Amino acid sequence: MRTILKWTPKNKHMANKHTTKKILYVENGIGYGGAIICLRHLVRNLDRNLYTPMVITGRTGAQYQEIANEAQWKHIPDRHIDIVGAHRKLDPTAWPDKIPGLRFIINQLLARADDLFNFLPFFINLLWTAKQFQADLIHANNEPLCNRAALLVGRILKIPTICHIRGDQKGSQAMAWCYSLADHFIPVSHWVSQSIQDKLNIPAEKITVIYDGLELDKLDINANGQHFRKQHHIAQDNFTVGLVGLLIPWKGQEIFIDAAQQLKNKIPQLKMLIVGGTPDDCQAYETKLKARVKNEGLSNIIQFTGHSTNMPEVYQGLDIVVSASTSPEPLGTVVIESMTLARPLIGPNHGGAAEMMTHNKTGLLFTPKDATSLANAIETFYNSATLRTALSQAARKHALKTFAVKTHVDQVQNQYKSLLNI
Questions:
Q1: SS3 label, residue 266
Q2: CATH numbers and ranges of domains, the chain
Q3: Inter-residue contact 282 to 249 (CB < 8 Å)
Q4: Rounded CA gap, 362 and 238, in Å?
Q5: Which residue has better confidence, 225 or 29?
Q6: Which end of the chain is more exposed for a tag (fewer CB within 10 A), N or C?
Q7: Phi, psi (5° rounding) for residue 403?
């Protein structure tokens, strides 16, 4: 286990431990994606004259460790046993249903193992850390069920808790109980806000919709996309479409492959890139995708680039950016970044993408889970460079106005002030 890493501000006047309120951030996402990226933007821009942040992550790795350069950071492992992976292998199989009640028993055993070996150690360590840090407020960066440990710590220590909501919720009894633990909720879109009101009866006064904010000025619109193309051996005359996002099933990589089959004989010199890293829990999914590409004769069209540390170069190296989530995505960092960088964008007509994008004005929307609809949108953009330019410029104008990190931070800090009575 990592020890707490201290962060010393460049300006010694930025932090004053005697007067600032201490905010403990807890991140329990599946991997390094949009949620943790947006959290880092928030923490970097937090008013150090008012707040001192500390970030707890359940995962570790080089990108997580970089947080120590921006705030106090500690890694507390939250997955000693891969229960998610066990479910991913077990759930599609039929043999547990041959004996009445066996699947229920197995699920209960897995749930209790999760409680004993994953949740309990994380909870105890988090409680000790929060007490040592003397946290004034806990900010859970993910939905309440996976962050129930953070919310319970807040209850025990009698300090307020805020929970970011970044997706649709099923409204189960366990989910409803976890939602009862938080003092306030920050959905990242109005679509998410409506979902938790409808399915979990969360009162409107406990909800504040705040769009994610990014340091848009650090997204270099003049980044050299040719570096990315050369790295992956993409020729100047290749028409390049990129699906950007972690390799997890609901991000829509399979729909993207289906669309490639439909387009391979329609668009000359077509390249379709699957851009993004793979969480440990989803290695089998990556293997499955690569096997599909090989078996279906698409290896000359589809490439897997893995994770990239220079996203502006990635976006500028693509002729079209695609978000193809099969489940409604709350907002989507890909949507924000590609709009800011004035890239032609295609997204599914549901969730946050539909809220952020206006069809045929700031991007193209396609029917979710429909590969033919996605293929048609790609072909529409391919056939009109004028349309690509017009929509991408309108998207950038909208993004710069809507997703500025200062606006995001100010709104979040207003919620802190309200809960802390300052």
A1: coil
A2: 21-213+404-420 (3.40.50.2000), 217-402 (3.40.50.2000)
A3: yes
A4: 24
A5: 225
A6: N
A7: -115, 25
Rounded distance, CA 185 to CA 204, Å? 10
Whether 256 contacts 292, CB under 8 Å? no
pLDDT at 153 over 90: yes
Contact (CB, 8 A) for 47 and 29:
no
Residue 65's identity, in one-letter code, is: Q
Cα separation values, 395 from 223, 234, 407, Å: 18, 26, 18
Is it the case that residue 118 has pLDDT exceeding 90?
no
Residue-wise pLDDT for 25-46, tens only, equals 999 887 888 789 889 999 999 9
**For the ranges 2-6, 176-180, 257-261, which has the lowest average pLDDT?**
2-6
- Give the whole-angstrom CA distance, residue 196 versus residue 189: 11
CA atoms within 13 A on the CB side of 320: 29
Query: Are the C-beta atoms of residues 317 and 225 closer than 8 Å to each other?
Result: yes
Check residue 5 and give left, alpha or beta (phi > 0: left; psi -120 to 50: alpha).
beta
Q: Which residues contact 307 (CB under 8 A, 6 or more apart)?
A: 32, 276, 277
Is pTM beyond 0.85 here? no
* CA atoms of 358 and 365, how far apart (whole Å): 8
> At 412, which amino acid appears?
V
Beta strands in 315-402 (DSSP E): 320-322, 345-348, 364-366
Backbone angles phi, psi at 14, to 5 degrees: -70, -35
Picking from 85, 41, 88, 33, the residue whose alpha carbon sits closest to that of residue 329 is: 33
Cα 256 from Cα 372, distance rounded (Å): 10
CA distance 354 to 328: 9
Position with higher pLDDT, 81 vs 157: 157
**pLDDT for the residue numbered 21:** 96
Which tokens in the block code for residue 95? Answer: 């043999």
Confidence of residue 113 (pLDDT cuts 50, 70, 90): confident
Give the list of residues 6+ apart from residue 129 with CB closer than 8 angstroms, or none: 4, 24, 56, 74, 76
Distance between CA 176 and CA 187 in Å, rounded? 16
Structure tokens at 402: 């809507």
d(CA 142, CA 163): 7
- Mean pLDDT score across all residues of the chain: 89
